[in-house]
Amino acid sequence: MRKKQVVEKGEERQHRCPGETYTINDSVCRGRQRVNYPKCNVCLDKVEPANFDNSTGESKLSVSIFKSYDIRGRYPEELDDLTARKIGSSVAHFLKEVNPRAKNIVVGRDMRLSSKSLTNALIDGICSTGMNVVNIGVVSTEMTTFAVGHYNYDGGVMVTASHNPAAYNGFKICREHAIPLSKETGIDRIAKLTQQYHPPRGEQLGKVIMSDVFKDYKRHVLRFVDNLRNIRIVVDAGNGMAGRTVPIVCEGLPIEIIPLYFELDGTFPNHDANPLIAKNLIDLQNKVRETRAHLGVAFDGDADRCVFVDEMGKIIGCDIITALIARQFLEREKGATILYDLRSSWVVPEEIKAAGGVPYRERVGHSYMKATLREQKAVFGGELSGHYYFRDNYCADSGMIAFLTVLGLLSAKRTPFSSFVMPLKRYHATGELNFEVDDKDAKIDEIVRKFSTGTVDRLDGVTIEYNDWWFNIRKSNTEPLLRLNLEGRTHELMEKGKKMLVNIIQGKLL
Fold first, then answer.
1. pTM score
2. Nearest-CA neighbor of 234 among 253, 255, 249?
């Protein structure tokens, strides 16, 4: 928002409210702001908080917030309201660059303490360019993507930091047809526009259109499942958005939901909303055993990812879930392509082939997975991170659809969940191990030299494969870490390979 011009004593600046043809003076303008006049929320001359200095197009912009897949940082140290407004303007300009006829951008937000403030600033920035905002309120990330695809809007922004701790927030962005933006396909451009930001001076401001998408969203996700039976499920929402979406979607279904931490609370008082960390699943595991539930599921903060535990409370790897869901889709579409990320177990391509499908291996990251899902016309894809992608969900990920699909699988077979999983646990994996390394590229090069006798693949980081074990080492796209995944045909092979790699990464002598 532009800072008010300095005026001499006795002078009053004239203003014009968005969409109105007559002018008003300072006194009337301030009076309208005090009573929350509806058009004040998109006014460029709105009074700013004392610490909100927008005197120039420059700011304390931290370029580190522009990540490979999204925009994310600590609030307000790295990402504040002023930066959010500039990003809103930049997103709108970018979407106009790729589609000059673009006019409507969907905006949704999660329950984080800073999300409302950031959303208001983001909306101001978008509207300042003349673009309209379709505000769908407090929703999960996949609902924002759904709204863009289902209603044919020109793009969308979800205000969320996903699974990150409470101090963080950010933006996930997509363009028309719910096509996600990555660093290469738009985030870098938005970063440059934000750095070069100049307050727009257009006379016509965009409108804010309030919209409730829950009814249509529920109808959409329920298309993926039928013939559910009476199943008891423990759901851990982690005080995140699943606490709102799960009750709405599951109302009227013949299932029993045992809720854990459904209260929306951006401070995450019980545990971080990151189900990939084992300690965050302890309450879910205990509750499943205590209630004799058929299975348990934990969602992340913005509810687009989920992790399952069986009826005994044992954690099920997300690559195993990928294999199970793949078999479900291949029962209906023989010969279909199934996507999986390169960290996944050998089990995944083996099961896809056995079910009559075509496995397709891809690098890590939702923007890459979604793009390849479109290019290959794959029916489904899964990542080790708990993201599951569906062709008929606008080639986007959905924790809710994955959850419902697993319920459908369990309903059809009427056997314990562990019985599905056991035959797929034929290899032994370390899970993802993370290491802080000063020179990540040099360390990867060192590892390649030491294991040059294996088959080397550089699709994402480095994957080196032998007949009886393999590993992938890659740089994190979101954190200053090296990530290692390793699998062996036996537990002994896995442990031996793990020891060798850990020693090399940590600089210990072999």
1. 0.87
2. 255
